[in-house]
Every structure is written in structure tokens, then in C-alpha cells.
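Because showing beats explaining, we think one record worth quoting, sequence and C-alpha cells together, and here it is:
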Amino acid sequence: MSDEEHHFESKADAGASKTFPQQAGTIRKNGYIVIKDRPCKVVEVSTSKTGKHGHAKCHFVAIDVFTAKKLEDIVPSSHNCDVPHVNRTDYQLIDISEDGFVSLLTENGSTKDDLKLPTDDTLLAQIKDGFAEGKDLVVSVMSAMGEEQICALKDIGPK
């Protein structure tokens, strides 16, 4: 046999899909949908009757989870839409660096240092003010389709 060693480098991820298919007719208000490659929360769904050419159509109005932009899409109700896997995780805030990154404490005791402060001005002010006052803060991090962003803040009392 051969004494050679073979090394394979893979640039792919582990294969966990960022989305899953769901029939358009089963997606409801407050659910999630992918429109123009963006994860969105559905705020309005209207369904038209079947027309001359067959399919009933679903008209989705949705808000981008991360940018809060309004997006719309029309899909035949029998077709599949992509639905993002959306997770929300709470972390305790440890530190805020000068370059706008936050240091968060995970449940297993390690730190997560790859998140930036949110772009939403009111949430940004609440986090900075609470941290400056020395309060114990817990931030909720929304993650979907490989993106993560701080979306909410909880005050769990003074340190």
C-alpha cells in the first residue's frame, strides 16, 4: 500500500442548513420567511383566490429581522418558501470596548467577543447608560442565516 499522507481542506460548513422549506399557504403572521435572501418576520399575509391560471397566491409583508426594512413577496400558496432558523439567546454583558464590540458571558462560562453594539439608537443608549451605571445587564441576541445582532435588553439589578 501507500505510505503517503493525504490532507483535505474543506471550506464548507458542517452542513446545518440556514433555512428549511415550508409551504407558502401554511406561513402565518408572526412567523418567519426569507425574502430577497434576508430573514424576515411576517407582519401581514393575504391570500388571493385561485385565478384563471391555477394557483392561489399568498402576499407576504414582512420586516427584516436585522435591518427593520419592510419587504414584500407574492408566492403561489402551493409552492415552498424558505423559512430561516431563528434563535434567540440571552447573554450577560461583561464589557463594552472602545471599538464598539461587546464582551458577553455565555451559559457555559466562556466569553463571546465577536458581536458589535446594536445600530438601533434607543437600544444603544440603554445599553451604554446601564453599563455606565454599573447595572447587571442581560442582552438578547437574535441569530438567523449566519448573522447575529443584539435585539433586546434586560436589567437584572445592580451589581
Observations:
- The chain has two domains: 19-84, 86-158.
- Confidence is low (pLDDT under 50) at residues 10-15.
